[in-house]
Amino acid sequence: MTAFDAAAGRDDPHRLRHDWQPPVYRQHTLGHASGGLVSKRIITGFGFWIFLLSDIVMFSAFFAAYAVLVGDTAGGPSGRELFNLRNVGFETAFLLLSSFTVGIARIGARAQSDSWYYGAMAATFVLGAAFLSIELREFAGMVARGAGPTRSAFLSAFFTLVGCHGLHITAGLLWLLTMMAQVFAKGYRADILRRILCFNLFWHALDIIWVAIFTVVYLMAVAV
Amino acid sequence: MDADHAGNPDLLPNETKRLKSQSLLRAVAMCCAVIMAPVVLSACKPAVLDPQGLVGLAVRSILIDSVAIMLAIVIPTIAAILAFAWWFRASNARAVYLPDWVYSGRIELVVWSIPLMVIMLLGGVAWIGSHDLDPAKPLSSSAPPVEVQVISMDWKWLFIYPDQGVASVNQLVIPAGAPIRFSLTSASVMNAFFIPQLGSMIYTMNGMTTQLNLQADTPGTLRGLSSQFSGDGFSDMHFKVLVLPQDRFDAWIEAARGAGPTLDPETYAALVKQSANVSPFTYRAAAPGLFRQIVAQKLPPGPGPRSGRPNPSVSPRMEE
Amino acid sequence: MLGKLSWAAIPFNQPVPLIAGSVVILIVLAVITWVVLSGHLPYLWREWITSVDHKRIGVMYMLLGLTMLVRGFVDAIMMRSQQAFAFRAPGYLPPEHYDQIFSAHGTIMIFFSAMPLVIGLMNFVVPLQLGIRDVAFPTLNSVGFWLTATGALLVNISLVVGEFARTGWLPYPPLSELTYSPGVGVDYYLWSLEISGVGTLLAGINLVTTVLKLHAPGMTYSRMPMFCWTTLASNLLIVAAFPILTATLTMLVLDRYFGFHFFTNEAGGNVMMFVNLIWAWGHPEVYILVLPAFGVFSEVVSTFSRKPLFGYRSMVAATMAICILSFMVWLHHFFTMGAGADVNAMFGIASMIIAVPTGVKVFNWLFTMYGGRIVYTTPMLWSIGFMITFVIGGMTGVLLAVPPVDFVLHNSVFLVAHFHNVVIGGVLFGAFAGYSYWFPKAFGFRLHEGWGKAAFWLTFAGFYVVFLPLYTAGLWGMTRRMQHYDVAMWRPFVLIAAIGIVIMACAAGCQLVQLVVSIRRREELRDVTGDPWNGRSLEWATPSPPPAFNFPVLPNIRGEEAYWGMKQRALEQARLGEEPAYADIEMPRNSPTGFICAFFATFMGFALIWHIWWLAGVAAVGAYATFVVFAWRDKDEYIFPAATVARIDRANRSARSAALAARREAAS
Question: What is the pTM of this model?
Answer without folding.
Answer: 0.92
